[in-house]
Amino acid sequence: MSENEKDDGPVAGPTPPLSKAKRQTNRRRFLRTALLTGGVLGAALSGFLPLIYAKKKRLRPPGALDEKDFLGSCIKCGQCVQVCPVSAIKLADLVDGMGVGTPYIDPRRQACDFSCDAVQCILACPTGSLTYHKPDFLAVRAGAALKAKPILLAKEKDAEPTLNMTERIGVARLSRPEACLATQGKGFKGQARGADFTGELRYMDVDRWKPIRVSEHPYDVPECDLCVRACPIKGAISIETVMAPNGSQHKSPVVHEPCVGCGVCEMICPVEPACITIEAGEVWKI
Amino acid sequence: MSDVLKRRFTEQIKIMFGWEPRKPEKITERAQQVHIMKRMTNKQDLQATKSHMRAHEVKSTKWRNRRWITLIAANLLFTLSFSLDIQILEGALTASRFVGFHLIDLNSALQVMLAHKHIINNLIIGTGTVLLLWGLLGGRTFCSWVCPYHLLAEWAEKLHLFLAKKKLVTDQTMDRRLRTVFWVIFALLALGTGYTVYEAISPTGIVSRALVYGPGLALLWVLALLFFEVFFSRRAWCRYACPIGLTYGVVGIISPVRIKYKLDGCFHEGDCRKVCLVPHVLDTVIKGRAVDLEVPIGPDCTRCGLCVDACPTGSLTFEVKGLQKLL
Ligand code: SF4
Ligand code: SF4
Ligand code: SF4
Ligand code: SF4
Ligand code: SF4
Questions:
Q1: Could you give the CA distance from residue B205 to residue B197 in angstroms, rounded to a whole number?
Q2: CB contact under 8 A, B201 and A43
Q3: Interchain contact, A101 vs B199, CB within 8 Å
Q4: Taking a C-beta distance cutoff of 8 angstroms, is the pair B137, B251 a contact?
Q5: How many CA atoms lie within 13 A of B168 on its CB side?
Q6: Higher-confidence residue: A29 or B289?
Q7: In this predicted complex, what is the ipTM?
Q8: Of A241, B44, B275, B325, which is most buried, counting CB atoms within 10 Å of its CB?
Q9: Phi, psi of A213 (to 5 degrees)
């Protein structure tokens, strides 16, 4: 019945020597105990494997501490998930290789476009895993800090146009320049990501507060500049004329220092796979 | 007609033909009990036995129902707050906001503090609220009234007991000191690795997140635990492993809400210990153990009330220390 059966009698007097059967039961019980210990600890440690093998860094929500501090401090409550108006933040599962229950953003599927206007996810986080300002005891990696508070284009005319963000979560990079439509001098007409794409974006000319589906907002541009049009941060990206090594000139998107790594450019890029991608946790290097 | 009565019938016929009446060899169990009662000389004992037997016939599920409703409602509130966006209880069990108040699970907060080694204001506030709440309600009240894994494990336990009755499985008990060892190991792991290792496998967190944010593969681990409990060891996780239970148990040491045992009417047949998730806390009901006429049950008790429902003599009751005098 219960573990206490063995001492059902009165408790007085020295304990008599154990019988052979009793010793055997005890030994078996010890083995079982060891087995459960092994099982639970094995499971606990297997939680590490994905962390060790994860090659590709994943994009954390805005204001995230550096990865190690983030993993230590995030309490896996998902309050950041709940406040995001475009549902950009997801919680990692066993197979995501980044700590079960920790939040991340898959920008290609749904980027953070700051539709919340005030980095709500940081506001919601109870542990400071997402934070406006790193506390003094945590170092800021060189290049991670933004030179100036980023200006949110959607708030440009407001009294307070900036986002309370002091560090970037990554940097956008033209990862496949040869595929870029702008580089090829091509335009783009139609739904940026096809009719089935469920990702949302805030279009200022449609509604200041309500993000709509990207598929509901078709484009028609003579020269592709979708990443520049969609970027929510002032001065983070522009189309420039650049010189190729062979001396020829062509247009190309160029990423600038204010880039916070939100991932909107990666989401909107009409080429499959995207030719502009976010490098999570990357810093600004010059 | 029952076997015993058939015999009695033939016996009566024999008597009709002149045989002497004899003392019957077989008497039904129910009749025997009444015979025992009739032999009792002490009126009080007799009365108690009578009410005890009568009480055994009514199965109470009062506290269990109240508890299930509370547990399901609390977890539903999490789910609905997010899915319907009603913003009453946001977050998951590890940390949440209840109409603006920060609530943070003590064990999760502890793991985070050990791993991160820094303490953030909100974390302190949230932990304080929870400490106060569970300090008042009784530490392990969390287990049986809120923890979603508890309910799953309770159902798994029913299955285990059913299979055990059919002699298909047996309960493999383990060393209860293991839970303390696990607690220390997980604390050290968090401290050493800077990663909240326990949170990755906490079935409480996994189930809670699954309820709010949708199911994931992590539930496989929870299934494995339930499987282990059904086929090998009754309530193994909560009894031998869960550090949350221990953390809250410690809070419960000082809490005023508890189960009270009254020695007077107890029959020591142990119905309470059979239903209890942590039967070691009910050692005091064993014959000759109670140190006083009234004994409060220890802090590891989850205040589930199953024993209160099970006890046919009302020897176990809920008590709020200090409040009883006021009422
Ligand atoms: S800052 Fe981005 S990710 Fe965070 S809540 Fe706002 S839109 Fe969502
Ligand atoms: S709100 Fe903070 S603690 Fe909660 S899951 Fe998000 S990052 Fe982690
Ligand atoms: S012991 Fe752990 S898993 Fe069991 S009910 Fe308590 S908190 Fe939940
Ligand atoms: S002692 Fe009673 S209330 Fe406490 S856990 Fe056991 S059955 Fe539940
Ligand atoms: S306290 Fe337990 S042992 Fe005593 S009468 Fe009640 S159920 Fe039976």
A1: 12
A2: yes
A3: yes
A4: no
A5: 8
A6: B289
A7: 0.80
A8: B275
A9: -65, 140
